[in-house]
Amino acid sequence: MGSTVFTIANQKGGVGKTTTAVNLAAALAEKKVHTLLIDLDPQANATSAIGVEKQEGRSLYGPLRGEGTALEMITPTSIEHLALIPSEEDLAAAEIEIAQSENYLTKLSSVLAPVKETGGYKAIIIDCPPSMGMLSMNSLAAADHLIIALQCEYMALEGLGQILRNLERIREAGVNSALDLGGVVMTMFDVRTNLSRQVVEEVKSHLPDKIFDTVIPRTVRLSEAPSFGKTIFAYDPLSPGATAYKNLAKEVIARFGLKK
After folding, report:
1. Residue 240: how many other CB atoms lie within 10 Å
2. C-alpha–C-alpha distance, residues 185 and 39, integer Å
3. DSSP one-letter string for 143-191
4. pLDDT at residue 260 in the model
5. Which helix (DSSP H) or strand (DSSP E) does residue 256 occupy?
6. C-alpha to C-alpha distances, 211 to 150, 221, 242, nearest whole angstrom
7. What does each C-alpha distance from 130 to 9, 10, 59, 161, 225 come to in angstroms?
8. What pLDDT does residue 183 have?
9. In this structure, are residues 112 and 148 in contact, taking their beta carbons and an 8 Å threshold?
10. Whole-structure pTM value
11. Could you give phi then psi for residue 63, rounded to 5 degrees?
12. pLDDT in single tens digits along all 260 residues of the chain
């Protein structure tokens, strides 16, 4: 069986996208699903959140320019069954350089093909920059499933519409006609407000079979963990955030058949 590639995206920052990428990857690994996390955001938040130092020349910047391979960039993490391709600031230059090259939307897809072919990873999770630039569009073109991290707040639905339009563009252009909306993860759910519940209900009414049952709570522990270079499971394994990401991983495994 080959790898299943998930892109975790939202063109807005601060919505729990990287938190979801990192903790979902760690939770899958904990369930013995061989997982590769790819940090495609030049800010390298996923890299530092998993406790890996940024190193020059260790990101996908070189391979996207035709220098070296993605396989050479794979770095082990302290978590069993979880590997990482880190990010670095140079990736920001890739936004511009890719746009000027041929096949500019399928660069990442080509770079990841050898990694998928090894069959070493059941799940590949890509954390995108918080914008719909070249790197994010490339990650949509390379993915089997798009998972949207959507915060429980008033403006969230507007953002949802924009991402779904980009999904359609990629499909209709024939760049990745098989790409589907794998699911919507509702993040930053505040149990004390009616608004959080209303936003979840509204997304359910639009996309009833796509929204995950697990909602990710807004908690201090989840926002603190990355500054210690730790997943929520290493930082506070009994917290509501840790429980939520474990449950999300179970849903992802079941929905996409990730068990051997």
Report:
1. 17
2. 19
3. -SEEEEEEESSTTHHHHHHHHHHHHHHHHHTTSSTT-EEEEEEEEEE-T
4. 59
5. helix 240-256
6. 10, 24, 19
7. 7, 6, 18, 15, 20
8. 98
9. no
10. 0.97
11. -55, -35
12. 589 999 999 878 788 999 999 999 999 999 999 999 999 999 999 999 999 998 899 999 999 999 999 999 999 999 999 999 999 999 999 999 998 988 999 999 999 999 999 989 999 999 999 888 999 999 999 999 999 999 998 888 888 888 999 999 999 999 999 999 999 999 999 989 999 999 999 999 999 999 999 999 999 999 999 999 999 999 999 999 999 999 999 999 999 999 85
What residue type is assigned to position 106 of the chain? T
Using DSSP, state whether 38 is helix, strand or coil. strand
Report the alpha-carbon distance of residue 132 to residue 128 in Å, rounded. Answer: 9
Phi (first) and psi of residue 50, to 5 degrees? -100, 5
Q: Which two tokens stand for residue 245?
A: 């990401």
CB-CB neighbours of 172 under 10 Å: 9
Which residues lie across from 215 on neighbouring strands?
186
Query: What is the reported pLDDT for 1?
Result: 57
What's the order of all strands across the beta sheet hosting 180-189? 75-76, 82-85, 35-39, 123-127, 4-9, 145-151, 180-189, 211-217
Q: Which of 131, 44, 139 is nearest to 89 (CA)?
A: 44
- In degrees rounded to 5, what are phi and psi of residue 222? -65, -40
Alpha helix segments (H runs only) across 78-155: 91-99, 107-118, 134-142
Amino acid at 150: L
**Cα–Cα distance measured from residue 60 to residue 201, given in angstroms and rounded to the nearest whole number:** 38
CATH code given to domain 4-256: 3.40.50.300
Token pair in block for residue 248? 């999300």
